[in-house]
Design brief:
globular
Length: about 425
């Protein structure tokens, strides 16, 4: 049965159908194989509706809407200008600014693809003019967007929290440590690259220019303060933080920066609705597919064949990391999270692993896979946005992937990389 389901999905993918179609088809075939009749597909519909019922998912469209508003306004540009004012004069400072801007915008949007567009569009021409090779620039932008998947708010963490029934506030705080570590490693690599390739530096900004840049960025910096600070101190939940982020985005772009008219919000909301519809169909289809797999006890058969029951915690973590990394190289990260998390959930519980550590590791692997060939979704976003050939986009990727995977290994052997801030924030 499993072979038939996955074969049908692969065929449909190769035929060019969007991912939601193979998922639904796979679940449909599974139901027919299980019950021997088409009449029982009502169970699949029930699971699809149940998959999108959790109230925590309300945060997803609101964070998407807030990111869309800011991408069309001045918030991203002001954050970039502030970072540039402080580090552009050091060797590799422009590249460091790009990575830092991705982290800051990630604390605003929670979306890797939104970060590629918002940060990459203004900074790529500037880096080209500054003497960087385009292959390095594209790889830096695509892989730095991974930080947006870890720094809260993270759409991937929301999906994982819903599927695994884990604390989303704890996941948000746990993602900060690995995100900052990745930013540090990318910054060091950028400086080394600039030195080896003799990339010229830019003139240092005066303290007056820095003060002006900070003042201009104060309003956009309110996003991470509101979201992270509010969740950290228990003032509001992630869903409430999402609602506040939308209100704050409207306040900034419509009334303070005046980059958007109130009537323009209709088009933004329409765009957000289209994206949200796709995400929620994927979530519902993934829930139905995961239910079929669970009902047929396919996960137990697969994990039994791998001998995972005999592994310790480190072995289980490595198996999870490898599975999610490979899966996200080929399929949208949300789909992989929806399918794989229920498969590994019994093993995680049996071995006594912290679900927050597992969720942070899974989110990181999903982010890495989304920027890794052959089919990482961020790669194709960059191809479309920057109009560059696929091979040029991926040429500079290997060093960044190695650094990202090294952070994954560190998290497996030293869980406090992810759990240190969580333990402080929630008195664990």
């Amino acid at each position: 049965m499993a072979l038939l389901m996955f074969s049908a999905m692969v065929v449909l993918l190769l035929m060019g159908f969007p991912m939601m179609v193979p998922l639904i088809a796979g679940a449909f075939i599974g139901v027919i194989e299980l019950f021997g009749t088409i009449d029982k597909t009502e169970f699949m519909i029930q699971q699809m509706l149940g998959g999108i019922r959790p109230s925590s998912l309300i945060a997803v469209p609101m964070f998407i809407l807030a990111a869309d508003i800011m991408t069309r306004g001045q918030s991203a540009g002001r954050l970039i200008d502030m970072v540039m004012a402080f580090v552009r004069h050091v060797r590799g400072g422009l590249a460091v600014s790009t990575a830092a801007a991705c982290a800051l915008f990630g604390a605003v949007s929670g979306s890797t693809q939104a970060t590629v567009v918002a940060v990459g569009t203004p900074l790529r021409p500037r880096m080209l003019k500054g003497g960087y090779k385009d292959s390095f620039i594209l790889a830096l932008i695509v892989n730095s967007s991974d930080i947006a998947f870890l720094i809260p708010p993270s759409i991937g963490m929301i999906i994982y929290g819903v599927v695994a029934k884990a604390s989303i506030p704890e996941l948000f705080i746990a993602g900060i440590g690995p995100g900052l570590l990745i930013l540090f490693m990318f910054s060091v690599y950028s400086m080394i690259y600039a030195k080896i390739n003799d990339v010229p530096t830019e003139p240092a900004a005066t303290w007056c220019e820095r003060a002006v840049a900070v003042r201009r960025a104060l309003w956009p910096l309110g996003f991470p303060v509101l979201i992270i600070g509010g969740i950290f101190f228990g003032i509001f939940s992630p869903t409430e933080a999402a609602a506040i982020s939308v209100a704050y985005a409207v306040l900034l772009e419509v009334f303070i920066f005046k980059t958007m008219k109130i009537t323009g919000l209709y088009q933004v909301a329409l765009s957000t609705g289209m994206v949200t519809a796709v995400v929620f169909i994927l979530v519902g289809a993934g829930a139905a597919f995961a239910w079929v797999l669970s009902f047929a006890q396919i996960p137990q058969q697969i994990l039994g064949a791998l001998g995972i029951d005999e592994m310790g915690q480190i072995g289980v973590l490595f198996t999870i990391a490898i599975a999610f990394f490979i899966g996200c190289m080929f399929v949208d990260p949300i789909v992989v999270i929806l399918i794989f998390v229920p498969i590994f959930a019994p093993v995680v519980e049996k071995t006594g692993l912290d679900p927050i550590l597992v969720g942070t590791l899974i989110t990181l692997q999903a982010a890495i896979g989304s920027a890794t060939p052959p089919f990482g979704c961020d790669i194709f976003t960059a191809v479309a946005v920057f109009k560059r050939p696929y091979l040029e986009v991926i040429r500079g990727t290997p060093p960044f992937v190695i650094m990202l995977l090294s952070v994954s290994v560190l998290m497996i052997f030293f869980p406090q990389v992810a759990l240190f801030l969580r333990d402080i924030a929630f008195n664990k």
